[in-house]
């Protein structure tokens, strides 16, 4: 932590937030944190930037939820590599605003700490500065993965089947509900969708499972919607993907809310973003092992919804017709 | 790199910026980067956040210089730990502004790349998003250091001497000149100060030297001015520090510019910030070895300017009188 007048008070707040049982050799309060990697491990590094009014709206959730969600976004990248989370650093650009006082940041860090503890990652440091702009939260996450064995986007092969964990589109359904207002929406379905949107759970255990049992050829997390992520897999693996629209897993909650809001739940799954499920390919020979063990050992549903073939691009079969699937995700266009 | 519509184009830009000879197991374009730590190494992790109009002004320097300086700030934290830089990730919040086009970012990353290559660090990833706020650059840097041997803020002992590398206050002198305008200022001195302010050089080699020869008991980098950093050392090491004002190293350039601008160069050194020199303590028994080898092997001047004693706090002796040194740095107060 550097360059901030309130550095000392903040480090004290963070030291309390870091909690006990840190897995770090040296945590907060020095120029850098120190992590001691296990023998035979690679270190996985990722960061995820959340900007107020672009990625989140303080009206829609609590600071605790925001903290949990911000960390989930980074941990989800580690999950997609099959890495075990170890530590995270947090950078904050903080607007001068009466509502952004100590209580807000305590709750923000408490949310991060809860998610960090659930997935094995300790707060290791960060940087914070007063800013004339919006609240910006940038989380840098570090994990460990068995040397040379990390899951990658580039390993999919023709003949592989395409899987995803959990359901897709719930998070987008939750966002649509927040924008619409809860009035007149079915309460049970609303609760499911809001939980998925406000406190997503990174699929770290599923990623570890796939890596340890050598079940996936390629893997990515679904942060920007199925269409965008399947295009990433296809591009990086230099293969083509065919998706069966009917096999895209939509929850009962998403279907129910979509009917009420006159929206298409498949559209939420394809380009809604922030589901943080894993999208992976596996050889057909692994299907029986996946069907037998995956849900039992990870507690997550598993859905086979397509296959990998030679070629380029992504297609989707809907009402019996195969058509190209546009590469559109949750976008923030700049130039 | 996630969540950005121009992700693909940006990854391509970054892949070119990353250059050849990356030290990474897996670099850009996947969910996370992979670093393979050497045997017997700890991993040092730090980040540094720079916000437009708080930490930098695009009027005062080129995007190339900004890139070099942003990376220098993070590498300086690694230098203070005695760590060898390995990789960095870059998060950008990018305002929609005509001047912030591809050419700007190419130059920004070229500056980072130049500094990265000079100190052994490869671009490993990052995140970028369009923002309604100012340009924010957050750099996470990762280094390696011999297991259990990282230099810390907490190791200073009574009887130690206090040293710093290079000169202090040049960067603040440069900033004062930028604000004043170059008219009427001595050109040679101006060039020195501007270079120190716009393209600071992290003291990575000096940090490695101190660690490898076991010469320092405690170390910190001077990013916020000598007064603030000496207070950090005193607090974390639970000791007191006495500084000799006359021994604080001020360059001829800073003295000359201070006369012209009617400023106190010692004030620049004490609370100016961004010098990125190292401040460290060493036992008196190491003095002769430091005097013999330090400058010869690192190419940097070394200055002894105080000592460590039992107690708390920091004092400065000026005109024969010892008085408490206020803990004031380069501050951005929030709450």
Order of helices and strands of chain A: HEEHEHEEEHHHEHEHHEHEEE
| Computed Rg of chain A | 20 Å
From the spread of the alpha carbons, the general shape of chain A counts as globular
Q: What fraction strand of chain A? A: 25-35%
Q: Unreliable runs of chain A, pLDDT <50, ≥5 residues?
A: 1-5, 331-335
Structural class of chain A: alpha+beta
Helix content of chain A: 25-40%
**DSSP helical segment count of chain A:** 10
What profile does the largest beta sheet of chain A have?
7 strands, mixed
Largest interface: A-B, 86 and 85 residues
Oligomer: homodimer
Give the spatial strand order of the biggest sheet of chain A: 7-9-6-10-8-11-12
C-alpha end-to-end distance of chain A: 33 Å
Mean pLDDT of chain A: 92
What's the number of extended β-strand segments of chain A?
Answer: 12
Structure notes:
Two copies of one chain form a homodimer. With 335 residues, chain A is of the alpha+beta class. Helices cover 36% and strands 26% of the residues of chain A. Chain A contains ten helices and twelve strands. The first copy, chain A, has helices spanning 7-18, 63-81, 102-119, 170-180, 187-198, 204-212, 226-237, 252-261, 265-271, 287-298, and strands at 33-35, 41-51, 84-95, 122-131, 136-146, 161-165, 218-222, 240-244, 277-282, 302-309, 313-318, 321-324. In chain A, the strands form two sheets. A seven-stranded mixed β-sheet of chain A has the order 7-9-6-10-8-11-12. In chain A, helix 2 (63-81) packs parallel to helix 3. Chain A is globular and about 60 Å long. The two termini of chain A are 33 Å apart. Chains A and B meet through strand 1, strand 2, helix 2, strand 3 and strand 4 of A and strand 1, strand 2, helix 2, strand 3 and strand 4 of B. Strand 1 of chain A pairs antiparallel with strand 2 of chain B, so a sheet runs across the interface.
């Amino acid at each position: 932590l550097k360059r901030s007048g309130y550095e000392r008070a903040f480090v004290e707040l963070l030291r309390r937030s870091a909690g006990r049982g840190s897995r770090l050799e040296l945590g907060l309060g020095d120029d850098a944190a120190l992590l001691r990697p296990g023998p035979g491990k690679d270190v996985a590094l990722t960061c995820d930037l959340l900007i107020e009014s672009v990625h989140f709206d303080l009206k829609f959730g609590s600071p605790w939820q925001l903290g949990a969600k911000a960390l989930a976004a980074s941990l989800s990248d580690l999950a997609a590599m099959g890495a075990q989370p170890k530590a995270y650093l947090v950078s904050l650009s903080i607007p001068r605003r009466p509502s952004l006082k100590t209580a807000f940041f305590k709750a923000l860090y408490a949310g991060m700490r809860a998610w960090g503890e659930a997935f094995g990652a300790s707060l290791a440091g960060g940087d914070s500065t007063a800013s004339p702009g919006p609240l910006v939260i940038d989380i840098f996450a570090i994990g460990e993965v068995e040397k040379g064995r990390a899951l990658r986007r580039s390993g999919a092969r023709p003949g592989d089947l395409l899987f995803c964990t959990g359901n897709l589109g719930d998070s987008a359904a939750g966002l649509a509900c927040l924008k619409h207002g809860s009035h007149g929406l079915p309460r049970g379905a609303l609760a499911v969708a809001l939980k998925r949107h406000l406190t997503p759970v990174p699929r770290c255990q599923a990623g570890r499972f796939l890596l340890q049992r050598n079940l996936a050829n390629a893997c990515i997390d679904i942060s920007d919607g199925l269409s965008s992520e399947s295009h990433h897999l296809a591009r990086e693996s230099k293969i083509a993907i065919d998706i069966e629209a009917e096999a895209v897993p939509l929850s009962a909650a998403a279907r129910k809310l979509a009917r009420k809001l006159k929206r298409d739940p498949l559209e939420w799954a394809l380009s809604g973003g922030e589901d943080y499920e894993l999208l992976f390919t596996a050889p057909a020979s692994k299907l029986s092992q996946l069907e037998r063990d995956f849900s039992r050992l990870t507690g997550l549903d598993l859905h086979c919804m397509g296959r990998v073939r030679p070629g380029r691009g992504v297609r989707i079969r809907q009402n019996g017709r195969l058509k190209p699937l546009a590469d559109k995700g949750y976008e923030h266009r700049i130039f």
